[in-house]
Amino acid sequence: MWPVGPAARGGLSMPNSPHLIGFFCDTPMIGSGYLAMLQIGLVAGCRKWDCALVIKSFDFSDRDIAEQAATLIARAPLRGVVVPEPLCDNPELLDVLFQAGLPVVRIAPHKDVGPTLDICIDNERAAYDLATYLIGLGHKRIAFIRGPRDHNDANVRFNGFCRAMEEARLPVIDELCVQSTTFDFCSGLSAAEKVLAIDPLPSAVFGCNDEIAAAVLAAGHRKGLRVPEQLSIAGIDDAPVARTVWPALTTCRQKMELTGYTAIDFIVNPPSSAEARKRPQQHELVIRESTARAKA
């Protein structure tokens, strides 16, 4: 699946460099399909370069994130650090990493902070494209279950949905835009039950990620709704859950395994030019059985 480099063949030597690569992530995202796919790519990249991955989770609400990071770096010298959103835009954390002289790969950053290696994911466009697909199926009354308020990816995904609706001259109905407190299934289930209690029901529900969309599917089954005949459901990420629920979820694939693999390459072989330090990552729609044309 992955290209094999000289380290994997036993030919790479890094005597003057730490072999540990840090992965600093947001605690509420642990266990999510998004991070699971990213970690698969990170581990594959570490195997290629004969490195090991050190995972540290932070509660985004903590005020001592920078101090926690500094303590970890002092205990375990790192070759570099991979930081996904929302931590990748935390200025205090980034200052600690810069002061330590570490290469920093940011996943889906929303701010330009200087000398980092950025893998740019257009979450706003991904949500726009998927919402446009639902609209193209004839859906007009579309619900959107939002992610955590303090997560920029969640906010820009909602923005993409709103832009698609506005361009189609369809209303974004406040009561159909329910907040999920986290990205996980349980929080999504609570939000899904609120959406499916609204009369009249939406003809489609767009979950901010696949775990939330899977929760909508479960809530719909409990309510006796036929998917997609009575309700179309879609998510984002193409996490494993999107392929294991029934019916399988229409989603927008973010290629997170490739993102993780690329992040390790970025750390081991940092590009020299400013242009090469920004790497766009493409997405693609994955159409499955959870969506269908709206009934007239």
Which key terms come to mind for this protein?
single chain, 296 residues, alpha/beta, Rossmann fold, 2 domains, six-stranded parallel β-sheet, four-stranded parallel β-sheet, 9 helices, 12 strands, disordered N terminus
Report on this model:
The protein is of the alpha/beta class and 296 residues long. The protein folds into two domains: 20-121 and 255-282, Rossmann fold (3-Layer(aba) Sandwich); 123-254, Rossmann fold, CATH 3.40.50.2300. The protein contains nine helices and twelve strands. It has helices at 33-48, 65-75, 91-99, 123-136, 152-167, 185-195, 210-222, 240-244, 256-268, and strands at residues 20-26, 52-58, 80-84, 104-107, 117-121, 142-146, 177-179, 204-207, 232-234, 251-253, 278-281, 284-286. The strands form three sheets. A six-stranded parallel β-sheet has the order 2-1-3-4-5-11, sandwiched between helices. It has a four-stranded parallel β-sheet with strand order 7-6-8-9, sandwiched between helices. Strands 10-12 form a two-stranded antiparallel sheet. The N and C termini lie far apart (45 Å). Mean pLDDT is 91; it is low at 2-16.
Our measurement of the CA-to-CA distance between the termini, rounded to an integer number of angstroms, reads 45 Å
Which residue ranges are poorly predicted, with pLDDT under 50 across at least 5 consecutive positions? Answer: 2-16
Compute the number of helices.
9
What's the alpha carbon Rg, rounded to whole Å?
20 Å
How many DSSP E strands?
12
The CATH class of the largest domain is: Alpha Beta
CATH topology of the largest domain: Rossmann fold
- Overall residue-averaged pLDDT value: 91
Widest β-sheet, arrangement of strands? 2-1-3-4-5-11
SS class: alpha/beta
Number of domains: 2
Helix content: 25-40%
